[in-house]
Design brief:
The complex is a heterodimer.
Chain A (H helix, E strand, L loop, with lengths): L7 H8 L5 H13 L1 H26 L2 E4 L6 H6 L4 E4 L1 H17 L15 H9 L9 E7 L5 E6 L3 E8 L2 E9 L14 H10 L7 H9 L4
Antiparallel strand pairs in A: 1-2, 3-4, 4-5, 5-6
Chain B lengths: L2 H21 L2 H17 L10 H26 L14 H16 L3 H12 L4 H8 L3 H22 L1
Classes of the chains: A alpha+beta, B mainly alpha.
Chain lengths: 221, 161
């Protein structure tokens, strides 16, 4: 190995940090002494940096969360369901929650430890709590979607969203990381993306207090 | 979240970047990433704790792409590649997206095996050993594909601009 001339493979491996210290030192010396090798190394270094710079930001981008009735992704694609982009780790954990919910219980996200999107306290709040009531989960409003399902918009500790009652569970239809004071996101209740998601779903007007009580009495069916 | 889910969540953004490198199309990349995540969850029983999760996940996405690409090839031959447009928001994003599309087009010209080697090492920053593990080839094979891919790209990028 040590006797081999420095070829382009060696230069590239050097640029990639793949050589042992002894090999790297040898290439470094050769590059310093030879303008042709120097240009070659510089070209490969620049190209690697160029690709890393161009594609790097993609890995910092928010991860897609299917706007999630918890249906299969094949179905989501077929229906061209709108995909939501929400930033950060919460979004990513939602993806997993939704996936897991889908695979094990096709009916929707339920009160299960692995259904991260809707933790039991959240589903419980959606079942029982009236809009405007104080608590760790706050329900902002209830309405009927165009498909007939009852839906509720809510804010929880880490999650703002809209969930609709389907089958025997609540299904997340819109989600975003919870507004945090001083954070980058709009305050709960004034999230324009959520407002437009609701506007796209709602049939008629939001439920008033009486309508909400009646819906709750029927188990939101 | 258990260890598996944590690992998947952590690798998803990078999987999506790798998908951009492979598919050379932002919409296809998102689609592929979703399907890979789905497949990874279904196959979670096959992952052994303690082994390299990222390599496993990359491999799933790459194998899925191979299956997809095989189906797509016929279509791609008859339909001219459409001008791609990415959503453009923040200042500088247009330039960044244009640069990325330019590099993607250069990668279009590489044979698949060189492109995936380039994507794993130059874009994903994997070591040769890791990339070879993802592609399930010996490290020497990975190295020679990588070198040929980079030589071709250097030529394309210096002559193409």
């Amino acid at each position: 190995m040590m006797a081999e001339p420095i070829d382009e493979t060696m230069v590239i491996a050097w640029v990639d940090g793949e050589l042992t210290p002894a090999e790297a030192a040898r290439v470094e010396q050769a590059v310093a002494a030879d303008p042709v090798l120097r240009d070659l190394a510089e070209a490969h270094r620049a190209m690697r940096a160029r690709f890393a710079a161009a594609f790097g930001p993609i890995a910092d981008e928010p991860v897609v969360v299917p706007s999630a009735k918890v249906v299969s992704f094949a179905e989501a694609r077929a229906k061209r369901m709108r995909h939501l982009w929400v930033p950060g780790a919460i979004a990513a954990s939602l993806v997993v929650g939704l996936f897991v919910g889908e695979m094990e219980r096709p009916a929707g996200v339920r009160d299960r430890a692995d259904a991260l999107a809707l933790a039991p306290p959240l589903a419980h709040a959606l079942d029982t709590q009236l809009s405007g009531a104080a608590g760790p989960v706050r329900v902002a409003l209830s309405f009927r979607a165009q498909d007939g399902a009852y839906c509720r918009s809510f804010s929880a500790k880490h999650l703002d969203g809209v969930a609709c009652r389907t089958g025997d569970g609540w299904t997340l239809r819109y989600a975003a990381p919870a507004a945090t004071p001083g954070g980058d996101y709009a305050q709960a209740g004034s999230d324009p993306a959520r407002a437009s998601a609701i506007a796209a779903m709602i049939a008629g007007e939001p439920l008033d207090a009486a309508g909400e009580r009646a819906a709750r009495a029927r188990g939101w069916r | 979240m258990d260890a598996f889910e944590t690992a998947l969540v952590r690798v998803l953004p990078r999987l999506r970047r790798f998908a951009h490198g492979l598919t050379r199309d932002p919409a296809d990349a998102d689609d592929l990433t979703q399907r890979a995540a789905e497949r990874a969850l279904k196959a979670r029983g096959q992952w052994q704790e303690g082994t390299n999760f990222d390599a496993w996940a990359y491999r799933i996405l790459r194998n899925l792409w191979i299956d997809t690409a095989r189906h797509r090839q016929r279509r791609d031959k008859v339909i001219a590649p459409a001008e791609q447009a990415e959503n453009v928001g923040a200042p500088g994003e247009a330039e960044a997206a244009a640069e990325r599309l330019f590099l993607m087009r250069a990668m279009d010209r590489l044979p698949d095996e060189q492109r995936e080697a380039v994507a794993l090492v130059m874009i994903e920053g994997l070591s040769y050993a890791e990339a070879a593990q993802v592609l399930e080839v010996p490290e020497g094979t990975l190295t020679s594909r990588l070198v040929r891919g980079r030589q071709a790209l250097a030529k394309l990028l210096s002559g193409g601009e």
